[in-house]
Amino acid sequence: MKKHNNVSEKKQFKINLIKYGAIALAIVIVFVAVIAVLKNWENNSKTPDSVVAPHVSHNIKTYNGKEYSLKKNVDIYLMMGLDEMSGNIVTDDDALNNNQEADFLMLFILDNNASTITALHINRDTMVNMDKFGVDGSVVERPYQQIALAHTYGKDRADGCKNTVNAAKELLGNIDIEGYVSVPMDAVGEINDILGGIEVDVLQDLTYADAKLVKGQTVRLQGSQALTYVRTRYGLDDSSNKARMERQRQYVENLFDVFYSSVKNDDTIIDKLINSNTVNNMEARYSGSLDNLARKLMEYEFCGIYSIDGKYETPVNDKDKINMEFYPFEESIDEVLVSILYDPVDNHKE
Question: Can you give the pTM of this predicted structure?
Answer without folding.
Answer: 0.74
